[in-house]
Amino acid sequence: MTVSYKLIPTSGKLASKKPFKALCAPYATASLQEMGRNIERGTTFSMSDLAGALEALSKELKAQLLAGNRVHLPGLGFFSLAIKGELRTHPRTHRPRLLRPQVRTIRFQPEKEVMGQMKEAKFVLLNQPRPNKAMPSASTIASVLTEAFAAVPILQISDLRDRFQLSTAKTYALARQLEAEGKLINVGSKWHKVFQKGAL
């Protein structure tokens, strides 16, 4: 079995350090019914046995976490609470404390054996993403368009995307900008744009 994934361009400050992030695709969720059928075939447990055991385990897991305990499920891993709140200093003791502490999330740390088995995973890339580049400068735009129109009389959106190495969304945004500035003249239709050279 293989794990299918896609590379998605990042944005904001993260984009300068990591231009892409990997996401499983399709990101499906295995249901209890689906997993239960597989377990039924390999054990003596029935679907009702599994559902009852899972419900009891869920109640006990929540009770232990609410008591502030870390929960260890052998063969799976450890569950624990992550806490958040506003850090304040006590006015008299000057000791730090959390104002209105609450649960931020439930952490899960898998067993080393589980992580070891995940090393056997095989991966396949489903897409060939383009970098999420910033819009080119005016001088770069003029240089690229001059070179492009010296080679061919017309340009399409796909030509602009390839020459500027932008995402499809940014290519359309750039085309609208250049068309409004008169640097590109659309001689095609509204839905199928074909550009001639404008005033560069």
From TrEMBL:
Does this entry carry the keyword ATP-binding? no
> Sorted alphabetically, which Gene3D superfamilies does this protein's record hold?
IHF-like DNA-binding proteins (4.10.520.10)
User: HU domain: which residues?
Assistant: 1-123
**Keywords of this entry:** DNA-binding
Which Pfam families does the UniProt entry name for this protein? Answer: HU-HIG
User: Any keyword DNA-binding?
Assistant: yes
**Superkingdom of this protein's organism:** Bacteria
What does the record give under GO molecular function?
Answer: DNA binding
**Protein name per its UniProtKB record:** HU domain-containing protein
Query: What is the species of this protein?
Result: Alloprevotella tannerae ATCC 51259
